[in-house]
Amino acid sequence: MGILYQPLYITTTFLIYLSLILLVPVLSVDPFTQALLSLKSEILDNSNSLSDWTLPSTSSTSDSRIHACSWSGVKCNENSTLIIGLDLSVKNLGGVLSDSQFSLFSDLVDLNLSQNSFSKKLPVGIFNLTNLRSLDISRNNFSGHFPSGISNLDSLVILDAFSNSFSGPLPKDASEIESLKVLNFAGSYFSGPIPSEYGSFKNLDFIQLAGNSLSGKIPPELGMLKTVTHMEIGYNSYEGRIPWEFGNMSRLQYLDIAGANLSGSIPKELSNLTNLESLFLFRNQLSGKIPWEFGKIISLSSLDLSDNLLLGPIPESFSELKNLRLLGVMYNDLSGTVPEGIAKLPLLDTLVIWDNLFSGSLPKDLGKYSKLKHVDVSTNYFVGSIPPSMCSNGVLQKLILFSNNFTGELSPSLSNCSSLVRIRIEDNSFSGDISLNFGNVPDLSYVDMSRNRFSGGIPSNIASASKLQYFNVSNNPNLEGIISENTLSLYSLQNFSATNCSISGEFPPFGRCKSLLVLELSMNNVSGIIPQSISNCQNLVSLDLANNNLTGQIPVELASLPGISVVDLSHNSFSGSIPAKFGSSSSLQLLNVSFNNLSGWIPFKVMDSSAFWGNPKLCGRSLRPCHGPNGLELGSRRTQKLAWVLITCGIIVLAITAAVFGVFYFRRRGKGQWKMVSFSGLPRFTANDVLRSFNSTEEAKDMVPPLGGSDCCKAVLPTGITVLVKKIEWRPERMNLMLDLISRMGNARHKNLTRLLGFCYNKRMAYLLCDCLPNGNLADRIRTKRDWATKYKIIVAIARGLCFLHHNCYPAIPHGDLKANNIMFDENMEPHLTEFGVKFLIQLNNGPSLAKVGNEAGEIERAIKEALYRDIYNFGELILEILTKGKLSNAAMSVQNTSKEVLLREVLDENDVAPSNSVQEEIKLVLEVASLCTRVRPLDRPSMEEALKLVSGLKKQG
Fold it and tell me: Among positive and negative, which fits the CA dihedral 77, 81, 84, 90?
């Protein structure tokens, strides 16, 4: 230490000595124990992890041993005269460390402060511990510039500073530590370029710089690191190419430069890395072809080049990669056929090549020589049949083949593929029987075989698929067969869709059907009655039985279901009356019973006639007046005359208005014919029906309704359902892009999403028709007093809806404008995300014109990724708003610049939660999720799937 540090040492020692004399005057304690007690007094120990750091009741002044050697986390030499190790990791400690707290421990070899909540600047006094061989400060909240002086630790072997809040440049002087083998500066906010000096390490084995804000070009000097085996420098924002000099890192086994904004071609020199086992270059802007020379990296086990701008085929040379387990090239512009040699790779278990331009057949022996677990080749141009050996090794879990041109029957190896969890083969031309043996596939949860040419009926053994949640065979018009008796009683089944399948037979009974949410059987030949056992389906939301041969009465049990929202029974032969309970249902949004044999009174105060057409014996305010027992019409004759006068006047006004609009049309050549698209749960309205609903004077054929000067309004459709109407305008050249996204929005169905019921459009605009929920939005109720359980439920519901959009929609649908105003509550106060996708639609329209965009698909994909990152950030902000009743809305300022302890105390106070309450740990974890989601660098944020797992893991969700 020398003369400079002597006064500080004397002062510190004196103060410690004096405080201990005052507290425990009868004891004489060694200075090391005194120093650790001083350290304990200055840090926060909310979990009492240092409870054994106490003074003895008696002490001998002649004992040279250090008393603290018996304390947890303290390691001493054999005779307990020197402290050589201090491990305070994972003890829930916090506070600010001062430079003087480590001044006595000059013999320290190992210092571990990891996984705590220490904040502010890293004390430079640590750099005076020149005997240190291991320094671990990872997973804390140290901030500011990394102090200079790290090179003083010339014996250091391990330097781990992962996951802190350091900013500014990486410390250049770290490169002067010749003994260093592990360097981890990942997960902070370091900025600027990687120092070229980092290429001068002599013994470095592991280097981790990922997940910062690094920029500039990657220095080619890093290629001089001949001893490094593991390098992760991705999730930054560099400029330019991958240096070809990286091919000189002869010992490299693991290289990750994903998500780093790299461009240019992949250097073929990387093929010189003959020890390389893992190469991750996904989420960049790499272009050109995949180097043929990569086939020489025989040791390669994992190769992921996904989400780039790569062209050309998968090189035939990949057939030589005998150790390859993962091949990921999804989200590129690759073409050609998949090399037959890929099927002969003995260790291959994951093949994800979706969303490219591949064609031809899949390799005929795929799955024969390797234990495939996950295959996703969707959204390409593949033809032919499923390779017969796809599941011959019995471990295939996910088979994703949708949106190709596959034909033929299901592979026999799939019939008894007991390992299958998910199979998606929709939108192809498969035929023959559905030969899945559901009884032998115990973990199968998701099956989508819609839009194919299957026949032979739904297998009767589907009733033994105990974990099946989603089953869709819709639009297989020659499927035929019946629905077996126990099919709709599956315990886990949530969605059963078999529309337009020529299914016949009696309507099956319902068993437990505890989980059933959606049942779609329209456009079939199902007969019989709806059984009263439908009352067992207490969670049923949507029922579509239109266009069948059903008879009998509409069961009152159906009208009594608490969450029923959509019921379409049109075009059947139901008789009797409409159950009066439909009229008092708080959840019902759509009821269509048109073209049946119903009679009696319509139990609705406001309802349009189109929902009841084709039932000549029905009467009520929406149709003809009901008659009394003497044949007299119920209601005032004077009122009827007045109504006829008003109707006549209305017709005249409509005729005049139509004439005026006609003139405008011919002058302006019109804006294109209106078209109507209805999604599940909306009757087949025409565009005229819809447009007249929110502009009664509009002929609605060629002109543009004004929506009262706003882009959003409420409207009552012909069935009487109230909807929100959202106007979206577009440039004609953008129409197809916009229509594609709107269609995906309409097919997104989740209990925490507001439904898009349909839309009508012309060449320049569209009107989106959305559910109108009754209980307002979160912004209106943000200051409502709620207990923790209610707030937690809202947070999880938002996370589930957002996770569905991000991970269950292909491609993902960004919400784009997640905020309290766009969280609506239904009649049960269940949160629903509304306006999802709308802002992204507007961005699509405002983007560069097709003539100016070299790769439209690539531009859109990048825009989607950016929007997804913003969604995650906004989710973090919403968490804070909910926890603080709207008082804390600037997440970046509040979370990232406030110590976790202070923020936690504020939230606990706001929620009236005592520090000792068991709820505290739950709130702390939710705050941690908010902190992760609002990190400044988008690539540092978790995915919504990860965020949902974190927040929903607190409690078992029903």
Answer: positive
Collect all residues with Cβ–Cβ distance below 8 Å to 344 and sequence separation of at least 6. 319, 365, 369, 370
Q: H or E element: which one contains 311? A: strand 309-312
575-576, strands of its sheet edge to edge: 575-576, 597-601, 617-619
Report, as an integer, the average pLDDT of 33-54: 90
Residues 453, 385 contacting (CB under 8 angstroms): no
Pair 208, 162: CB distance under 8 Å: yes
The per-residue DSSP string of 877-916 comes to HHHHHHHTTTS---HHHHHHTS-HHHHHHHHHHHTT--TT
H/E stretch holding 566 reads strand 566-568
| Catalytic pick among 817, 826, 871, 940 | 817
- HSE (CB half, 13 Å, CA atoms) of 479? 32
Bond preceding residue 625 cis, omega within 30 of 0: no
SS (H, E, C) 217-265: ECCHHHHHCCCCCEEECCCCCCECCCCHHHHHCCCCCEEECCCCCCEEE
Q: How far apart are CA 756 and CA 735, in angstroms?
A: 18
Distance (Å, rounded) from C-alpha 44 to C-alpha 808?
43
Structure confidence by residue, pLDDT tens digits, 341-390 = 999 999 999 999 988 999 999 999 999 999 999 999 998 999 999 999 99
Where is 645: in which H helix or E strand? helix 637-668
Structure tokens at 780: 């209106």
Structure tokens at 762: 């012309």
Q: In this predicted model, what pLDDT tens digit does every residue of 928-944 receive, in sequence order?
A: 888 888 887 787 788 89
Hey, what are 677's tokens? Answer: 């698209």
Nearest to 33 by CA among 49, 16, 51, 50: 16
Whole-number Å distance between alpha carbons of 234 and 278: 14
Average pLDDT of the chain is 83
Q: What's the CA gap between 750 and 469, in Å, rounded?
A: 13
CA distance 478 to 490: 25
Instruction: Give the pLDDT of residue 415.
Output: 83
CA distance 317 to 340: 11
| Amino acid found at 696 | S
Cβ pair 814, 867 in contact under 8 A: yes
pLDDT in tens, 676-734: 887 766 666 677 777 777 654 333 333 344 443 346 777 777 666 678 888 888 888 78
User: Token pair of 292, please?
Assistant: 């043929």
Contact 520, 473 (CB under 8 A): no
- Is residue 224 within 8 A of residue 199, CB to CB? The reply is yes
Q: Is 122 helix (H, G, I), strand (E, B) or coil?
A: coil
- Cβ of 4: how many Cβ atoms within 10 Å? 7
Residue with tokens 């507001």, as numbered in its chain: 754
Do strands 44-45 and 93-96 pair parallel, antiparallel, or not at all (unpaired)? antiparallel
Please give the Cα distance from 745 to 679 (Å, whole number): 10
Both tokens of 839, joined, read: 């802002």
Determine whether 304 is an active site residue: no
